[in-house]
Amino acid sequence: MSEAAANRGDSLPEDWKLFDPDRYEGEIDDWQRAKAWLESCQAQNEDEVFLMQCKLMGVYNELSTSLLRDGMSYKAEQAIACLDNQAKMELLYTTTLFCAAQAFKLQEQVQPAAELCTITLERQLLHKHFEPQEWSISALQLSVLYNNPDDWVRAAQCLYASEVMLAKVKKEDLTEDSVPNLQIGWGKFHMVRLSHAAQLRKRGIERIPPQFEVMFKGLSIDDKKLDDTKEPVLSKAIEEIKSLDRAREEFLQGQSRLIGAKQYYTLEEHVSEHYQLTQDHCSMYSDLLVFEKDIGHKCKLLKRQADLFEPLITSLVHINWKRYVQQMDIQCGEIYLEMCDLKREGFVDGESPKQIERRKKINRLCVYAITKSSDKFKHFLKTCEENGKEPEKVDESIEHPFVLSHMYLARLKVIVGDPSVRVKYLSASQKYYQWIVDYIKKNPQSEAKFKREGEMSAEMVTLLPAKIRGIQDGTFRE
């Protein structure tokens, strides 16, 4: 039940009881009982019982839906009172079945819930029982249920229909978050498509695109057909993403939507939403990287990812956002670490002036990435401190990144340079490897979780002292 309806203390309008008693005897009571069972299953998760009750009451004959009355605006409720008995029965019937859709959703049976909601929207358009903004919101919510590889065509049609319907609403009547939420819906649509394409590319899998399945067939909003297959966005929804150009196109579409949403969900007023949008944006960069082959371009994409996180890490100083900062510290540190690894791939042997200069340039870039990565991992560890000291044991929820931060810091090293610089980095690495060995000894219950890290650290603690001595006395050779 909507909060507005609950506050008004509404009940079914009196004239809903004017049905022909010979034809509709008991239906109103059944509807009220079904609605009560819906509220019960929402509160107590008794959805299976509710579904059985619907069947026993004879109101579960076919799967067709309409918007639940308590979700309607007051204007829509007033309009219902003017309907004739046949129209009221249509609305009553579909409303009752909408309760079943909610029960399916509570049972996490997404497909039947989505199908019921689709019929709801189609029937509302057909019988003209809807309020544009509420219909748009319902279509947007339905797009989430369809946002998967088998149903992208449906998801795109829902988003397109939502956008068309929202355009009918007067600007002064729009809720302030309606347009930003639609932008988020489109953004997540492009994000999920790009992510799926990246996974297929990593695994070398070719996928046959689904057929275009029409929703809202023959229905239109004014002169806009909702099944218009000429719309570019709908045709793109079944086009597979196989090339860098196509991946970049999908990325730019999603990025534009997410940036648009962030204009409303600002960091100052909507921290959680802004943070999630930033995470989605960065996720799209990660998936685009899968299609990029040029090392220089990859590093630029990684740098743009880091640039999205850096301002948030600096701004979110309040203790309430500590977990957000910790998450971004780790992600940022990993990004710079990946940049360093990519730069090392370009390392060249040889003693020609050109080769020597290239090595120096690569090393400078690596030192920059190492410094940035080190700063982020150290900042994460600082957020874990208790009374200014690093704890011997942390909460299980952050133990994994806590240990891995030490592992990452141990890995950071330069390629070439002054022996004293190399010794400095290797000595720091030895310290972090030793920390991991000691941590596992103090917390034996964590040994299985960090078996690989523990074995590697123990080996490096043994090998590094000899390597450091060799560099210092000039006897060590790579």
UniProtKB/TrEMBL annotation:
Cell compartment(s), UniProt: Cytoplasm, Cytoskeleton
Entries under InterPro entries matching the protein: KBP
Protein name: KIF-binding protein
Family classification: Belongs to the KIF-binding protein family.
UniProt signal peptide: none
Keywords linked to the UniProt accession: Cytoplasm, Cytoskeleton
GO cellular component, one term: cytoskeleton
Source organism superkingdom: Eukaryota
